[in-house]
Each structure stands twice: as C-alpha cells, then as structure tokens.
Specification:
By secondary structure, the chain is α/β, with parallel strands linked by helices. The chain is built from 6 helices and 9 strands; from the N terminus they run αβαβαβββββαβααβ.
C-alpha cells in the first residue's frame, strides 16, 4: 500500500457508481484504487502530463482491467484550456514533474524539460452528470487547478483531497 492513511480515506469515501478525477495520477496507484472502487458503473478521469510515466499508467490501467471505466487525460490541469505548458522533471525523480514558468530560470542539468497541453477540469465536468471526488497532487499547481474547476465546485460540491505545501505559494 502507498500512503495508507489516504488509501483508507479513499476506500471509505469512494462508492460504486461515483465519478472521480485523479489529478497528478503519476504511475496510477490511486487511479487503480478508484477504478476498483467505482465499479463498472463508475468513471475515473486520470489526469497526468508526465510523458515518462504515462505509458506505465496506461499499461497499469489495461493490465488491471479498468480501461472501460478509466479515461486518461494526457495534460496538465490548470486555469486555462489549451495552449502549452512547460514541465520540469528533476533528475533522480522523473515522477515528480511540475509546471514551471519560464524554464530559463532553472539550473542547467538539474532535470529534463517537456512541453505539454493544458486542460481545465471544468471541461471534463461538461461530459458527465456529476463529479463526486477530486484528488489533486500536482507539485505546486494546485491554485491554478482550483481556478480551472470552479464550475465543478459550484455544481457538484465534490469531496476534494488536495496536497498542500505552503512553501510553494506566494500567499499560502
């Protein structure tokens, strides 16, 4: 198990038939957990921009028989739809990709840079009747993500689990 306290929390919260969004899905631990918990009538949207981990995420979903209820969104969730975003993965931790602006300020040789698309979570909400739970673990992009899901918050009032690191924000 990974982060047992969160696994237990989600196991108690997520019910069959729910629709869940996993922002910052990474290799898919929580995506797989959610896919198992929502059952065949539920939906999971797995949002992940990291091109290094995406093939492993896709493979895990398929190998675990969850591809009919899981949709992978290969983008960084944020406040705006479309356009590109700069992503940085530190050497030694390629799974910990984060949105950076602009990449010129980063130390050369500290990691790898990628370009990726952006998506507003509100766009996903338009495709389903209800969003029941949103998990956000996005290495400092949480503020932008919340801005991009204001309609979900108003319409559905989902449960929200959000990683928060006050050191990543100008006004935490």
């Amino acid at each position: 198990f990974w982060e047992m306290w969160l696994t237990i929390f989600f196991a108690r919260q997520v019910q069959p038939g729910m629709t869940v969004i996993d922002v910052g899905a990474n290799f898919g631990y929580y995506t797989l957990l959610f896919g198992s918990l929502v059952g065949s009538q539920g939906r999971v949207f797995s949002v992940e921009p990291n091109p290094v981990v995406l093939p492993k995420l896709h493979r895990s979903v398929v190998l675990n028989g969850l591809s009919t209820r899981t949709t992978s969104i290969e983008a960084a969730a944020g406040a705006v739809e479309g356009g590109g975003v700069a992503l940085f993965a530190p050497h030694g931790e390629p799974k910990n990709i984060g949105v950076v602006a602009p990449p010129e300020g980063m130390a050369p040789g500290a990691g790898c840079f990628y370009q990726g698309p952006r998506v507003r979570l509100d766009r996903l909400a338009a495709t389903v009747p209800r969003i029941d739970l949103v998990k956000v673990d996005a290495e400092g992009a949480e503020q932008d993500i919340i801005t991009g899901m204001e309609e979900i918050l108003r319409r559905d009032r989902p449960s929200l689990l959000l990683e928060f690191n006050p050191g990543r924000y100008a006004n935490a």
